[in-house]
Specification:
Number of domains: 1
Distance between the termini: 23 Å
Oligomer: single chain
Number of helices: 13
Largest sheet: 8 strands, parallel
CATH architecture: Alpha-Beta Barrel
Helix content: 40-55%
CATH class: Alpha Beta
CATH superfamily: Metal-dependent hydrolases
Number of strands: 8
């Protein structure tokens, strides 16, 4: 099983091609990706409520698709309502986690509002995917406060800090409820091996950042990183299956 734990649906303000659901499915099949977890690009950049609604309609009929509820710390009450709407009945909505993008919201993940979002995620047993990179507002180190206060919540460092991936590893070493997701423009072959050596392959996740980037980009970088078969199985899918409970969800859906 291969699970893309970090992808997007919808148009971007960057000059990249937007892909519809069927085109994404064709791309997934060609690469051997069995499940993809999406956040809405529109929700991240423009209107998170409208973006979440659009994504819900896209993923509902597609067995291979799951979603993140995108939230914005500038609108706490609305964000908590969105989480309730899509996560209180996760099996029906196909949303399995929460997405936070600190730099586009202009709020670091160490703010009080993000602590409230983390508290709500714990109630729904929903992992949080947080965009992390090199600037102060998107530093992986901003996740430490929430990870310490809510040890039952799983925090996924998207891009594992980007070019500051060593900071991402340092955070993951401090908190066992943090995970490292590997996609991004930084394809340094040292980072994946360093992450596995530091925290073990069980806490590293494969993601592509599609449709912002072609998924082949990350597949190519992984092929240069010398994973063992066991490491590859964990990173490429088994970890995401476990963290998001995908197998259990699908068994329940077959019996309803």
């Amino acid at each position: 099983m291969v699970v893309d734990a970090h992808a997007h649906y919808g148009e971007w303000y960057f000059p990249v091609k937007s892909r519809g659901a069927e085109e994404i499915r064709i791309s997934m099949r060609s690469l051997g990706i069995d499940r993809t977890l999406f956040s809405s690009s529109s929700a991240i950049v423009y209107d998170f409520r409208e973006g979440n609604k659009e994504l819900a309609e896209v993923i509902a009929p597609v067995a291979e698709f799951y979603g993140y509820v995108s939230v914005n710390a500038n609108y706490l009450s609305e964000s908590l309502k969105e989480m309730e709407t899509y996560l209180a009945r996760k099996d029906e909505s196909r949303f399995v986690g929460v997405k936070v993008h600190p730099s586009l919201a202009g709020r670091g993940f160490d703010c009080d509002e993000c602590l409230r979002i983390s508290e709500a995620a714990a109630k729904y047993d929903a992992p949080i995917l947080i965009h992390t990179f090199g600037s102060p507002i998107e530093s992986p180190r901003n996740v430490l406060k929430a990870a310490e206060q809510f040890p039952q919540t799983k925090f996924i460092l998207a891009h594992m800090g980007g070019y500051s991936w060593e900071d991402g590893i340092a955070v993951a070493l401090q908190r066992k409820n943090t995970y490292l997701e590997i996609c991004g423009t930084c394809t340094d072959t040292r980072k994946l091996r360093a992450a596995i050596q530091a925290v073990g392959p069980e806490r590293v996740l494969f993601g592509t950042d599609a449709t912002l980037f072609a998924p082949e980009y990350v597949f190519g970088s992984i092929s240069d990183m010398g994973l063992t078969e066991a490491e590859r199985s964990l990173v490429m899918g088994e970890n995401a299956e476990r963290i998001f409970g995908l197998n259990a969800r699908e068994r329940r859906q077959r019996h309803t």
